[in-house]
């Protein structure tokens, strides 16, 4: 059963109608066209209208109290009292955005996709990490994958897909994507992002335990065991 909520489409087992006691109701004729990911037409028997009641999913502050969480708004962090773990809150804002245009003309067959090179319009730093997203001016049937990419000589790799049943040409210079520069701080550990460091043990117990573990590993890796000579049957010996 295909569930169309108006915002998303999802497949639901037809047994749901039996559980709701509406499996015997007649279905209205469906005149639309729905295709699978392979492009084949789906055989739809009909449609029926179902009403859903959404329950409350609000989470109160009692959940934070159960875990002993303390929120620091100024530092944008959440600290768990039980473990002392500090979690960052919020997200890293994107600093710069640039358009990306096709470096060459590309022909996409129906239901086809390709990896193409695109030129970044603007002065972007080489080796920078960027988030590649589809441009708002593209046709609905031309899709661009949302990926992370590294800028090489002012170029990025863009994955484009033709979702239509017709051949599509993307001309050189067409704006196909927008690239947003991701700061290096987004890839750093949480402790480094908050400006803190991992506390070291004062008594040196952690270093001793780490040394003992490494010594055990070296003993297991470097040890050589002499294999015993296999038994050879009398009829096979020279």
- CATH topology term of the largest domain: Deoxyuridine 5'-Triphosphate Nucleotidohydrolase, Chain A
Structural class: alpha+beta
Number of strands: 14
Low-confidence stretches: 196-202, 204-222
Question: In which order are the strands of the major sheet placed?
Answer: 10-12-8-6-14-9-11
Helical content stands at 10-25%
Characterize the main sheet: 7 strands, antiparallel
Share of residues in strands: 25-35%
How large is the radius of gyration? 30 Å
> What overall form do the CA principal axes indicate?
flat
SSE sequence, one letter per element: EEHHEEEEEEEEEEEEHH
* Overall average pLDDT: 74
Question: What is the CATH domain class of the largest domain?
Answer: Mainly Beta
Total helical segments = 4
The tally of structural domains comes to: 3
CATH homologous superfamily descriptor of the largest domain? Deoxyuridine triphosphatase (dUTPase)
Distance between the termini: 74 Å
* CATH architectural group of the largest domain: Distorted Sandwich
If you had to describe this structure to a student in words, what would you say it looks like?
The longest helix has 18 residues. This protein starts with a strand and ends in a 16-residue tail after the last helix. 13% of the residues lie in helices and 28% in strands. The protein has three domains: 51 residues, no CATH class; 30 residues, no CATH class; 91 residues, Deoxyuridine triphosphatase (dUTPase) (Deoxyuridine 5'-Triphosphate Nucleotidohydrolase, Chain A, Distorted Sandwich). With 238 residues, it is α+β, with helices and mostly antiparallel strands. It has four helices and 14 strands. The strands form four sheets. Strands 10-12-8-6-14-9-11 form a seven-stranded antiparallel beta sheet, with no helix packed on it. The relative contact order is 0.12.
